[in-house]
Amino acid sequence: MAIDDSIDLEARLERPGTAAGARQALRRALEEAALERPRLIAGLMARFRDLEIAEDALHSAFEEALEQWPRRGLPERPAAWLATAAHRRAVDQLRRLGRWRAKQELLLHESPQYEEPAADASRDLLDVVDDEVLCLLFTCCHPALAREAQVALMLHTVCGLRTEEIARAFLLPRATLAQRLVRAKRKIRDAGIPFQVPPRSLLHERLDQVLLTVYLIFNEGHGSTSPGGAELCREAHRLAGLLRELMPEEGEIEGLLALIELCEARRAARRDADGSYVELARQDRGLWDRAAIERACARVESALRRGRVGPFQVQAAIQAVHAEAARWEDTDWPQIVGLYEVLERMQPTPVVRLNRAVALRYAGDPRASLALLQEDEVRRELDAYAPYHAALAEALATLGRGHEAATSWRRAAGLTEEPAARAWLEERAGVAQP
Amino acid sequence: MRYLLMIYTNEELENGMSEEEKQAMYGEYFGFTEAIQKQGIHRAGEALQPVATATTVSVRGGKVITTDGPYAETKEQLGGFYLVETDSIDGAIAAAAKIPGAKHGFIEVRPIIDFD
User: Fold this and answer.
1) Residue A325 has what DSSP assignment?
2) How crowded is residue A284: how many other Cβ atoms within 10 Å of its Cβ?
């Protein structure tokens, strides 16, 4: 893992004359401290209200640690040491910019308990209250920021992923992503994007924004075959876990966490030896992580009992039904149809209807499935979407309309990039209309 | 912080309104202005004459050039503005969402630079 952008830990540890054991200890201390990044950044943000200052200060603190720890020995609590060092660096930086006096007045005005820490730092700057970490997440996912900027901030600023790593995962030039981050951080500062937990009237709306951003990170990772994809999934899981710690009462957080865990529990079965995608129906269920599935299913159930049922809980419940079936043939399709109906009421989107149509066919009602797929809005919105035409083909084939089914299989194949999936779809077209 | 809320609406739409509809709209604006005055965030606010009255001025090589019309021809035109002062962008967004024109047009929210 990266401890901080632009610090190549491996290269830095290659210091001549350092014993392997000492190097190991140093690495462990740094990595452990880096895990505290959300709290370190939140603490700096709470005091300085400027993400660029906060990140630069933390970066400098890591540099200082790399310099000092090998010579003076590891501090007892590395993360707290970094918090103090970063705080001092931030004050230095603001002084250099000539903004310290103004900032100090602002801070004194805003938080009367604030005082500059003494040189010996008896006050623990890492003692960030949970609220401050929450503030950081809400700030990074503020709706005045573009969604791509929210994703980039969450991964870079909160999780500490390097700019290159994020750029690679999203197939963007590094410069584009770096630019996006700088702009977002400056907008937070200059447009007065608040560092606060939203008031009750906005809380759920804003929380849904945060969850959606985490979900998008997960989804991007889930759909990717590169090692960076797995990393995105891990970070999304970490963020969801962090949110859960901070707001343990929220069912939707629990729902998102369970959804991620259920998808991750099937990771080993999702790709075959060649790395090609294996759809749910053909997965070797023996490769699923049963213990993880059980934990996640329990999570969904407890979330659903709390009220405020939301789309993530419903999606997790759908995945739980799949996960509980010993074989594909044993899937409880009527229950899945029912859950998609609930989801459709919350999110009346064509893709949700497509999923309900697919479930209807498996539940033994291909006529209802076809009728849903042929609705004008669904057809219009999903015409360029391969899974739509595949679902249409399946429904038509089940109804014995082979000729039309073959046309839809071909259309699906024509919209598919991946060679293996494309070949499979073309083969189906051939079977449907020999 | 202070924010300028710029109201972009389609003038054609308003030209097509009946006298009653116009009066109703002015009433809504009046109500909104009063509401943010009571809330204590109102600093200024004006309605502008249509873009047909706009003149664009520039100076090139020491010469003043005036052009008839707005700086940019767009489907929606700047028709008025409010200046509000709120704790953060959240207050400005909440105010912008209550501007009557937001229902058919767009409100651009721009923070004011504080030079102090």
Assistant:
1) -
2) 11
State residue A118's pLDDT score.
Answer: 42
| Chain A residue numbers touching B111 (CB-CB < 8 A) | 190-192
Q: Alpha helices, DSSP H only, in A73-162? A: 78-96, 100-110, 130-140, 147-153
- In three-state form (DSSP H/G/I as H, E/B as E, the rest C), the secondary structure along A6-49 is CCCHHHHHCCCCCCHHHHHHHHHHHHHHHHCHHHHHHHHHHHHC
Q: Do B89 and A193 touch (CB under 8 A)?
A: yes
Q: Which residue has the tokens 């590169």?
A: A226
Give which of A81, A99, A100, A68 is closest to A40, Cα–Cα: A81
Judging contacts by C-beta atoms under 8 Å, the chain B residues touching residue A143 are 93
The pair of structure tokens assigned to A174 is: 């590094």
**Token duo for residue A14:** 């290659």
What SS3 state is found at A355? helix
Which strands, in side-by-side order, build the sheet including B77-85?
Answer: B42-47, B77-85, B2-9, B106-111
Segment B23-59, tens digit of pLDDT: 999 999 999 999 999 999 999 999 999 999 999 999 9
- B114 at A interface, C-beta within 8 A: no
B-chain residues within 8 Å CB-CB of A191?
A: 89, 111
Phi/psi at B60 (nearest 5 deg)?
-130, 125
Residue A156 near residue A163 (C-beta atoms within 8 A): yes
Structural contact between residues A277 and A418, judged by C-beta atoms closer than 8 angstroms: yes
Residue A17 pLDDT > 80, yes or no? no
Per-residue model confidence (pLDDT) at position A120? 42
The CATH architecture annotation of domain A346-434 reads Alpha Horseshoe (1.25)
Return phi, psi of residue A58, to 5°.
-65, -40
Identity at B27, one-letter amino acid code? G
Tell me the per-residue pLDDT of A45-97, one tens digit each, with 9 for 90 and over: 999 999 999 999 999 999 999 999 988 889 988 999 999 999 999 999 988 88
- Chain A CB contacts of B89 under 8 Å are 142, 144, 191-194
Determine contact: B92 vs chain A, CB below 8 A. Answer: yes
User: Is residue A144 within 8 angstroms of chain B, CB to CB?
Assistant: yes
Superfamily of domain B2-111: Dimeric alpha+beta barrel (3.30.70.1060)
What global pTM score does this model have?
Answer: 0.84
Distance CA A298, CA B54 (A): 65
Give the H/E segment covering residue A281: none
Domain boundaries, chain A: 9-117, 129-257+291-303, 346-434
B77 Cα to chain A: minimum distance (Å) = 22
Best of B2, B3, B41, B90 to disrupt the A interface (most A CBs within 10 Å) is B90
Tell me, what's the ipTM?
A: 0.89
Residue A114 has pLDDT above 50, yes or no: no
